[in-house]
Amino acid sequence: MKISAQEEYGLRCLLQLACLPGTASLTLPQIAEREGISVANAGKLMWLLNKAGFVQATRGTKGGYSLARPAEHIRLSEVIKVLDEDEIGNHCESYTGVLEKCIHKGDCGIRPVIVGLHEIVQEALSQITLSQLVGDEAQVDATFHQIKRFERKLGQESLRN
Amino acid sequence: MKISAQEEYGLRCLLQLACLPGTASLTLPQIAEREGISVANAGKLMWLLNKAGFVQATRGTKGGYSLARPAEHIRLSEVIKVLDEDEIGNHCESYTGVLEKCIHKGDCGIRPVIVGLHEIVQEALSQITLSQLVGDEAQVDATFHQIKRFERKLGQESLRN
DNA sequence: TCAAATCTTTACTTTTTTTTCAAGATTGGT
DNA sequence: ACCAATCTTGAAAAAAAAGTAAAGATTTGA
């Protein structure tokens, strides 16, 4: 259960644009250099982000990428969904709709876990916007901290019952 | 952000043992057949689970695998940690200790997100035991549902501020 | 109009992960 | 003692993911 390279670097590249003042833009070589990845790799990531409507690309001299909408309105959950290709579970087709292929069919003990994890992660990410990542790092920490504390309390309660 | 094949199938194989009455055991071919994977693949997964102390292996005729401790005392967080090799983050070495290699060093905007996600997932998984997965599926659902509801409430509150 | 700078797209290569194979080691039964 | 059933282990093959390369398309400005 870990973030993929595509998710991590895609998010990082997007964050570079969010850091800029106003609606400024960066070229592919600039983004690549700031993230320490190749231009080709950055190109592929930015292409995905462009296709999904998070960034605006301009070709030609003076071209580059800029955010397509304000950083305050870009939730991490949306970004991750696009970079992740939004698949959950690996081989159990029960979740993705093709029920027949899965040996576990209806009575699959770990299905609620896989689905549940995916949901709480998405929900947590939907609480965080790009703009929080650039300036308000403390708020990001606070959000996760509160969730963690609630989870721990939940565990203690179920222990008492 | 998805569960790996090793995590998913390792957990599934372990669950097969947890489903058995008492301290009964299963052989590798039996586990493989029940999970629809090859015997070789099941062998590797069970070897990992054995090394980590979750199952007990007996060789020779009448051999097989059984749980090394009661299903009530095996938390999903522990199992996943072993199957996952417990790594978080992909390329940013800031998290794993080798600080020098990472271009982002201290001022890394998405670090709190990666670390935070890992922590809330681990915390959620630590609330769930193997025994809950075999019988008490409703409780598993309930746990995740409560977390999700709290996260949503959190979001609404931060909206009001 | 042309050249330089830039993004776009497809195909290819490399690396990592997953799966399989094969030989070894241990146990139980005869 | 021997054989059959079983787990163990390391290496190899296959598949998937990540990263690279190259040719194409668009824009700006001289």
What would your notes on this structure say?
The structure is a homodimer of 161-residue chains. Chain A is mainly alpha-helical and 161 residues long. Chain A has one domain: Arc Repressor Mutant, subunit A (Orthogonal Bundle), CATH 1.10.10.10. In chain A, 56% of the residues lie in helices and 5% in strands. Chain A has helices at residues 5-19, 28-35, 39-51, 76-84, 111-126, 130-134, 137-160; strands at 55-58, 64-67. In chain A, strands 1-2 form a two-stranded antiparallel sheet. In chain A, strand 1 and strand 2 (64-67) form a beta hairpin. Chain A starts with a helix and ends with a helix. In chain A, 37% of the residues are buried. The model of chain A has no long low-confidence stretch (mean pLDDT 89).
Please write the CATH class name of chain A: Mainly Alpha
Greatest chain-chain contact: A-B, 60 and 60 residues
Tell me, briefly, the overall form of chain A: globular
Helix content of chain A: 55-70%
CATH architecture classification of chain A: Orthogonal Bundle
Full CATH superfamily name of chain A: Winged helix-like DNA-binding domain superfamily/Winged helix DNA-binding domain
The arrangement of helices and strands of chain A along the chain is: HHHEEHHHH
The average pLDDT value of chain A, as a whole number, equals 89
Number of domains of chain A: 1
- Compute the gyration radius of chain A: what is it? 19 Å
Portion in strands of chain A:
under 5%
Q: Which runs of chain A of at least 5 residues are low in confidence (pLDDT < 50)? A: none
Write the CATH fold name of chain A. Arc Repressor Mutant, subunit A
Please give the number of β-strands of chain A: 2
